[in-house]
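Researcher: We plan to redesign the surface later, but first we want a full-length starting point. Tokens attached.
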């Protein structure tokens, strides 16, 4: 399930440029920007431009999009300063639902990395 922008959604507002963000990458389907409260020295969010509430709503129509997000994540992680595998690396997280720790109800992939210790994670 995908839908048009939800006017109450903070990530839809960022995608529309109504709220500023520090952009990492943009293409037709995706916006990637730095998290406003980073848990790690590198912490950015990969967000589909379509308003999909969470991983719980994805279907076969999202397979290509999810594949693109996961294959782009390592490239952007290195670009943003994560050190290479295996000594460096990064953590990729999709919080889903209240008990999954999701606060913003617009599907997003967290990519976190950089030297430890981190604030969280
Ligand atoms: P969740 O807990 O839903 O997985 O993660 C939401 C993330 O969005 C949090 O890490 C939070 O810091 C980030 N966030 C919330 N509002 C904004 C915002 O207005 N701008 C940016 N750049 N990040 C935000
Ligand atoms: Zn949204």
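Model: Full-length starting sequence:
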């Amino acid at each position: 399930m995908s839908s048009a922008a939800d006017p109450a959604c903070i990530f839809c507002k960022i995608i529309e440029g109504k709220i500023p963000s520090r952009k990492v990458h943009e293409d037709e389907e995706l916006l990637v920007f730095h998290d406003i409260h980073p848990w790690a020295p590198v912490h950015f969010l990969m967000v589909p431009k379509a308003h999909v509430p969470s991983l719980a709503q994805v279907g076969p129509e999202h397979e290509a999009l999810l594949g693109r997000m996961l294959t782009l994540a390592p490239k952007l992680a290195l670009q943003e300063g994560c050190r290479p595998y295996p000594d460096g690396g990064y953590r990729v997280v999709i919080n889903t639902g209240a008990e999954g720790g999701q606060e913003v109800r617009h599907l997003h992939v967290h990519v976190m990395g950089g030297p430890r210790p981190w604030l969280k994670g």
